[in-house]
What we know:
Shape: globular
Number of helices: 9
Distance between the termini: 53 Å
Strand order of the largest sheet: 1-6-5-2
Number of strands: 6
Structural class: alpha/beta
Mean pLDDT: 87
Radius of gyration: 18 Å
Order of helices and strands: HHHEHHEHHEHEEHE
Largest sheet: 4 strands, parallel
Strand content: 5-15%
Amino acid sequence: xxxxxxxxxxxxxxxxxxxxxxxxxxxxxxxxxxxxxxxxxxxxxxxxxxxxxxxxxxxxxxxxxxxxxxxxxxxxxxxxxxxxxxxxxxxxxxxxxxxxxxxxxxxxxxxxxxxxxxxxxxxxxxxxxxxxxxxxxxxxxxxxxxxxxxxxxxxxxxxxxxxxxxxxxxxxxxxxxxxxxxxxxxxxxxxxxxxxxxxxxxxxxxxxxxxxxxxxxxxxxxxxxxxxxxxxxxxxxx
Length: 238
């Protein structure tokens, strides 16, 4: 009996959306849960990738009001419905196995586009060492690792460090989020020279975190920064 089969028997896979145990040999989500996913569809903002209602506009009002330094973000799903619970379990209930499914979602929605970007390396958004010690892992790093396998691109998990343990972002508005992240990130100890980077996180909300990391990367000498996230919120102003 192969190791993978034995592991399936001892630790049966669960649907990453409803949590139910999958039948032996099955992977991914339940067929009934698949329709619960809300995929990002055109028209989208040409900067953050958020869906917009007015197809005559190139950018959402968030990106128009607060310009972003990264080239473009590629989110796969809208942050609503069951995916919200799935991400919560992934981050706070040790459901690390969901990372492969999340990377598959990104590849399904944007795989072809990402392959055409000539990316030199994938960099996950870091968490502070205190949070990582408590949780045991960085959720963005797990997604980045799986995405790296799918794209055949090297992942640099320690390229950026979180220098400050900032206040929770969810209680702040977009302007406060940007201020909260001032000097929150720094380049880690490395001598790697990259030209084009893909920055990866689990959720894109206001873009403040992606923007703060992008500025650190560009200050270091990175020429182009693209971003990707599993899910994206609706933003503050539609």
